[in-house]
Amino acid sequence: MAKLIIPTPLRKFTNDQASIDTESGSVLEALNALAALFPELKVHLFDDQGSLRKFLRIYVGDQDIRELNNEKTAIEPTTVISIIPAIAGGRKSNEL
Amino acid sequence: MSEVTFNKKELERYSRHLIIPEFNIDGQRKLKSAKVLVVGTGGLGSPLLLYLTAAGVGTIGILDFDVVDDSNLQRQVLFSTEDIGESKAKAARKKLEKLNPHINLVVHETKLTSANALEIIKDYDLVADGTDNFPTRYLVNDACVLLGKPNVYASIFRFEGQVSVFNYTDQSGKTGPNYRDLFPEPPPPGLVPSCAEGGVIGVLPGIIGSLQANEVIKVISGVGEPLSGRLFIFDALAFETRVLKLSKDSNQTKITGLIDYDNFCGIHQQENGKSTVKEITVWDLKQLVDTHADYQLIDVREPYEYDIVNLGGELIPLKTVEESIDKIRSDKKVVVHCRSGARSAKAIEALERKFGFSNLYNLKGGVLAWADEIDKSLPKY
């Protein structure tokens, strides 16, 4: 099964689970499967229009899916998918 | 470059560089000729400044507007207990000039803004970005793109670190991707990971800042392959590292000038939003406590924060507020608080909008204000 790695900042929505195994056929299916498992995560992955949020990059292996077939990029059983979030550091004054 | 010379003390000091065949005295000359601006003297800035100073980078700019706080010392190894309350930039210089008296340390005790960034950065060959917030990251990136300077980037969050070299022009004249190619937009305030649950494990910036310092030295000396067009990811919990390919985003809007980065990152909207809820001060709350008034106090922070310090309020973390409305009284005054007042304002806005509450008051400044003004024995975090 393909492996989808969840970055540290999003793990608070996955009960600290660091990755999921998925039998999905595409990146979008895998992300939807992740959001279905952890519904709180959905708003952090997709905007109101259902598009992937722009502060996230999705990689298949070491390649950005923008260089492949975007969300439709096919995944194999050995594929490792990474969600890479923009992180800025630990300033508390931005805290909500 | 051959006009750069070293005295006996310098040659002895840098001897472990000089005997590396690929580095040798030419690499050391390049370091001595170089001018590097380190933006931020915090978790990343500390190892960066220590190693760049020790390595003999000839001119180092130290930019920070903040003062040393006791909560910095868990990771900002440049500072000592005696520096608490001192200017970070000046305390850094004091420490670094003891480490290496042969270099030039320039203090910029200021906040980097759209008004001063180009003027400050233009005098340097390279910028090392060790800031802790999105507006300054985009500002540093855009200024470096406009001035054609490489930007050695690192960023940390809790147990995760990222490193890359942005806007690097190689020997063939080709310039690599920049921060906007990676992240065209910052996360909106309130969405992960805009520090909703900040914090970082203390040793992580030491690891990541050291990698960043190594990239600075590589870019300056021309030794090795800089991390341009690649993004290094480190997960300290799993101890996993990945190197991902980065390419230019053909859809990127061309950077033509500096903008209002707080606005770009949604900071202003967030601040404006705060003013729409009713507020009370910590002194008002103290009066409620002292007069044994009939009110409810709700704390919307996380349980681990409650364990650090609390005011005895009922703990209902922000994310569970809407499913806990049966616990929130509508028949008397309800004071809602968090650490500094932002999350509680958000909770009140949601409760007013969705459930029609009209008896909710935000504690201005949160637990921090209470610890500052009412009970100074309480810890701040």
Instruction: Point out poorly predicted stretches of chain B.
Output: 270-274
By helix and strand content of chain A, what is the structural category? alpha+beta
- The coarse overall form of chain B would be elongated
Which radius of gyration of chain B do the C-alpha atoms yield? 24 Å
Spatial order of the strands forming the largest sheet of chain A: 2-1-5-3-4
| Structure summary, number of beta strands of chain A | 5
Reported for the largest beta sheet of chain B, the result is: 8 strands, mixed
Largest beta sheet of chain A, briefly?
5 strands, mixed
Largest interface: A-B, 35 and 55 residues
Proportion of residues in helical segments of chain A = 10-25%
As residue ranges, the low-confidence spans of chain A are 92-96
Number of helices of chain A: 2
Give an overview of the whole structure:
The complex is a heterodimer of chains A (96) and B (381). With 96 residues, chain A is an alpha+beta fold. Chain A has helices at 27-37, 42-45; strands at residues 2-5, 19-22, 56-60, 63-64, 80-85. In chain A, strands 2-1-5-3-4 form a five-stranded mixed β-sheet, with helices on one face. In chain A, a hairpin with a 2-residue loop joins strand 3 (56-60) and strand 4. The termini of chain A are far apart. Residues 92-96 of chain A have low confidence and may be disordered. With 381 residues, chain B is an alpha/beta fold. Chain B has 15 helices and 13 strands. In chain B, helix 4 (45-55) packs parallel to helix 5 and helix 4 (45-55) crosses helix 9 (204-221).
